[in-house]
């Protein structure tokens, strides 16, 4: 049951290649996911048959493009269980969505002396927008700590979130520690204190079923490319009441109601937040990726990745000289596994693995405060998705052992 | 291909420099100093250079953290430029960065780089070129901002 299904072996042609003369094992999914042929076909079909600008033409192609674009919005709405399509804003990606919230809602509501609460595990894209907002407003930016095994410390969260807190912004899943954070509980804590909860869904939406209404998030941002859609497209969810009361992010075509010489009024949601020609093909491609994930089943995605982690993590932890970050209990760990090998810099590890055809990330993972907190300059990171197999996990384990041997005994001893 | 390919990058001399880096210490009497980071990986080098009135590099030392390639490159760089004139050192930095980018250079220029010339093998590993050049960029920046101790 762990082996890839017939469709995943044929749907991702990019995976059927050799890299450095070895069959490719792609384990950099937390950075970006590979695209199934259905997504590539949707992009091609749009450009070859339906391309036109949306919402502003009466001709047939404009009508087709508009209806495809809005159908993609409805797919995204159902995927995250938003109450209505008007709550689904297309963005460039998670970074764009989070910046939108900080620059509009944050700008309107955060004042001197207020608090913004994030966690030490945040990706820079859910950190710097709040840090800079706090600096502009003379507000305080507070960080929730981690427990000893790398989970969010909820006792600390209860201490840090106070009646002075206006915004709580937390990753739904970590891009380093492999934990899923209890957004629902955090939303409840935030609401008790009169604050809103902003969820960074970049690492969660591709891997687990997301229900923004059940989580009770006020805003939730995700990236299309990490869930097998094209780059440059993402979704920002916001509760209608908040979006209605929030000023536009950018001004221009498509987002207006009436423009007079000295003043303007804004069109309705969600288009109020979509100034200028949007990434129409990207949205349609994301719609195709959502179809793919929905057909496959998000529960099945999560179960598949959990089986890989259950298999790999204990074996990795059993290797001498290997440090794994985040919880060591496979049940608490997602398919994002950051690790270091004693005495070998993660860049050297990544180069060695690349020679074995294995693609992993090495670096600070856009989480420099977390790296400092963990006393690491950088880490290596293997991250899995629905097309990865037990064989991929075995290839990684073998290559890690060979890498250790190579660097610990000098050159010339490798196979 | 496998790890055997790594031997072309991680030659013994490179591993030796990274295991036992030369001049890895801070100077108390540096005339030129700089901190340079590789923002893509978080590697950092603090480079101290002492240049005398005649324009000769009389002492050099570095501290910081980084991968095998950046550490060994820094070690080999300090060996190569110690005792050289400021101008020669800058010329060597240019030669090194040209070399790793695959540009042709007279053999005499490459010989002057000493052990550092062995890093021409980095050309086959484009993702690692920045690791090799960090120390030489630091040298260039430190020497060009003569007498300026700020960073």
TrEMBL record, chain A:
It comes from the Bacteria. It is an enzyme of class 2 (transferase). It catalyses: (sulfur carrier)-H + L-cysteine = (sulfur carrier)-SH + L-alanine. The keyword Transferase applies. Residues 25-396 form the Aminotransferase class V domain. GO terms for biological process: cysteine metabolic process. Keywords: Pyridoxal phosphate, Transferase. Its EC number is 2.8.1.7. It holds the Pfam family Aminotran_5. Its cofactor is pyridoxal 5'-phosphate. This is Cysteine desulfurase. It comes from Levilactobacillus spicheri DSM 15429.
UniProtKB/TrEMBL annotation, chain B:
GO terms for molecular function: iron ion binding; iron-sulfur cluster binding. CDD domains: IscU_like (cd06664). Pfam families: NifU_N. SUPFAM superfamilies: SufE/NifU (SSF82649). InterPro entries: NIF_FeS_clus_asmbl_NifU_N. Residues 10-131 form the NIF system FeS cluster assembly NifU N-terminal domain. It comes from the Bacteria. One of its GO terms (biological process) is iron-sulfur cluster assembly. NCBIfam families: SUF_scaf_2. Belongs to the NifU family. This is FeS assembly scaffold SufA. It comes from Levilactobacillus spicheri. The lineage of its organism: Bacteria, Bacillati, Bacillota, Bacilli, Lactobacillales.
């Amino acid at each position: 049951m762990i082996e890839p299904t017939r469709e995943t072996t044929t749907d991702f042609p990019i995976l059927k290649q050799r890299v450095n003369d070895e069959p490719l094992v792609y384990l950099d999914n937390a950075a970006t996911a590979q695209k199934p042929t259905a997504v590539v076909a949707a992009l091609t079909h749009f450009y070859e048959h339906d391309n036109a600008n949306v919402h502003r033409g009466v001709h047939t192609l404009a009508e087709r493009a508009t209806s495809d674009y809005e159908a993609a919005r409805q797919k995204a709405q159902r995927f995250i269980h938003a109450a209505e399509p008007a709550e689904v804003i297309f963005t460039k990606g998670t970074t764009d969505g989070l910046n939108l919230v900080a620059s509009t809602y944050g700008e309107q509501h955060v004042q001197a002396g207020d608090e913004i609460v994030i966690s030490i595990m945040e990706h820079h894209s859910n950190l710097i927008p709040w840090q800079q907002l706090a600096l502009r407003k003379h507000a305080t930016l507070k960080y929730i700590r981690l427990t000893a095994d790398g989970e969010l410390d909820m006792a600390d969260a209860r201490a840090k979130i106070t009646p002075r807190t206006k915004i709580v912004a937390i990753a739904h899943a970590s891009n380093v520690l492999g934990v899923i954070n209890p957004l629902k509980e955090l939303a409840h804590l935030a609401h008790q204190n009169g604050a809103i909860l902003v969820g960074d869904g970049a690492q969660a939406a591709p891997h687990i079923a997301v229900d923004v209404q059940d989580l009770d998030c006020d805003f939730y941002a995700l990236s299309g490319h990490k869930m097998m859609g094209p780059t440059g497209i993402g979704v920002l969810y916001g509760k209608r009441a908040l979006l209605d009361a929030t000023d536009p992010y950018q001004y221009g075509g498509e987002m207006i109601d009436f423009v007079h010489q000295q003043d303007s009024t804004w069109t309705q949601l969600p288009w109020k937040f979509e100034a200028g020609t949007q990434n129409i093909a990207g949205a349609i491609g994301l719609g195709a990726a959502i179809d793919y994930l929905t057909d496959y089943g998000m529960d099945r995605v999560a179960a598949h990745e959990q089986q890989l982690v259950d298999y790999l993590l204990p074996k990795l932890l059993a290797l001498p000289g290997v440090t794994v970050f985040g919880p060591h209990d496979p049940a608490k760990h997602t398919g994002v596994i950051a690790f270091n090998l004693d005495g070998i810099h993660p860049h050297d590890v990544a180069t060695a693995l690349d020679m074995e055809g294995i693609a992993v990330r090495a670096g600070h993972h856009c989480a420099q405060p977390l790296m400092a907190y963990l006393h690491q300059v950088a880490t290596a990171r293997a991250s899995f998705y629905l097309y990865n197999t037990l064989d991929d996990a075995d290839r990684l384990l073998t290559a890690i052992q060979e890498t250790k041997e190579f660097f610990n005994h000098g050159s010339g001893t490798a196979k | 291909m496998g790890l055997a390919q790594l031997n072309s990058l991680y030659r013994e001399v490179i591993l030796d420099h990274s295991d036992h880096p030369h001049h890895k210490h801070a100077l108390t009497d540096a005339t030129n100093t700089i901190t340079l980071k590789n923002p893509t990986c978080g590697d950092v080098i603090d480079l101290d250079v002492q240049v005398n009135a005649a324009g000769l590099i009389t002492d050099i030392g570095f501290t910081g953290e980084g991968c095998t390639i950046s550490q060994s490159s820094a070690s080999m760089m300090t060996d190569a430029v110690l005792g050289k004139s400021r101008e020669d050192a800058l010329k060597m930095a240019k030669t090194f960065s040209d070399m790793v980018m695959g540009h042709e250079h007279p053999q005499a220029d490459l010989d002057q780089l000493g052990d550092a010339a062995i890093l021409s093998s980095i050309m086959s590993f484009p993702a690692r070129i920045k690791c090799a050049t960090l120390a030489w960029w630091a040298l260039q920046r430190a020497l060009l901002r003569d007498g300026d101790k700020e960073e």
